[in-house]
Input
Amino acid sequence: MKTRIAFLLLTSLLGLLVARAADKAAAWTSMFNGKDLSGWKTNDEVPGAFSVEKGELKVSGGRAHIFYGANGDASFKNFEFKAKVKTTKGGNSGIYFHTAFEPKGWPSKGYECQVNSTHTDVKKTGGLYGVKDVLNNAPSTDDVWFDYYIKVEGKHIVIKIDGKTTVDYNEPADWDPTKSLKNMNGRKLSSGTIAIQGHDPKSVTYFKDIFIRALP
Output
């Protein structure tokens, strides 16, 4: 009888722990308060490239990057990310993950998820830049908000635009970007922060409703 009671208590405890883990995984964290750039660190390569207008994050002015975390050092390994994004004519931007703060230049660490509806670059919205690209035909339209979703779990990367999968990629166990990518030696899974890209002086893009949640 005592053994059965102990078994039932253990089963209940395990069930409670599993439920709590599920609740934790289900909790989305807002990354942008719609008022200012609190919780982010910009490298100011182009001062003023990131601003807040009407509750939206505006990206304009030239190449610069803003990194999540008070010191740009937040860290995620397995996670889900979602945001609403809007491009304008000829605009180009990107969302980096597993990256780290750098004072200038294109981030050398992590993957970039492309944001580009009509910029001349043939690599369009929803692609894993340089690795699994969406070429020529963008699933997004200028001046229209679209949903951007990224999920990283283990070696598996999924990108969806407005609920449609544009990338379903498994990083090979022997993946070595130095052997196949030019000037993208850091394109590999590890852990790190999220960064948003300002691309060039003519590019203007907008972000809002930015959320992330860590996965086990």
Notes: The mean pLDDT is 92.
